[in-house]
Write a structure and sequence with these properties.
globular, Kinase-like_dom_sf, 3-stranded antiparallel sheet, Protein kinase domain-containing protein, 121 residues, Meiotic_Drive_Suppr_Kinase, two-stranded antiparallel sheet, Transferase(Phosphotransferase), domain 1, alpha+beta
Length: 121
């Protein structure tokens, strides 16, 4: 996952969370990462204008050569206090940089999935 954050470093603080630190214990295999707080998830529904912001953020991730592969409302955060970049797409754990998988053809279903997201309730 740190490779994904490295590839998308120019989007940190804008469209994805800022990665402060990451590491992995060589012997036991567990890892840790510390990311910035990006507000609340959109699980309860879209705020006005957030779907457009989410489309822009996902398009920027795609332009960086990354396919998210886990688009859901729980992975889209919104922070009312942040007036410059209020929306972040989080949880890049399933993301891929594989150039055979990251194609325009693969990006279209992800964008469609974003459009079809509905709140839990």
């Amino acid at each position: 996952m740190s490779l994904t954050y490295h590839r998308l470093g120019y989007l940190q603080r804008g469209y994805i969370p800022r990665l402060f630190i990451h590491g992995k214990h060589r012997r036991y295999g567990f890892g840790i990462q510390v990311l910035e707080d990006c507000g609340e998830t959109l699980e309860n529904g879209w705020h006005p204008g957030t779907k457009k912001l989410a489309r822009i953020a996902l398009a920027k991730i795609h332009e960086g050569g990354v396919l998210h592969r886990d688009i859901s409302l729980r992975n889209i955060n919104y922070d009312l206090q942040n007036t410059l970049f209020p929306l972040r797409i989080v949880d890049l754990g399933e993301a891929t940089l594989d150039t055979e998988l990251v194609t325009g053809e693969a990006m279209q279903p992800e964008l469609k999935q974003l459009e079809e997201l509905r709140p839990i309730a």
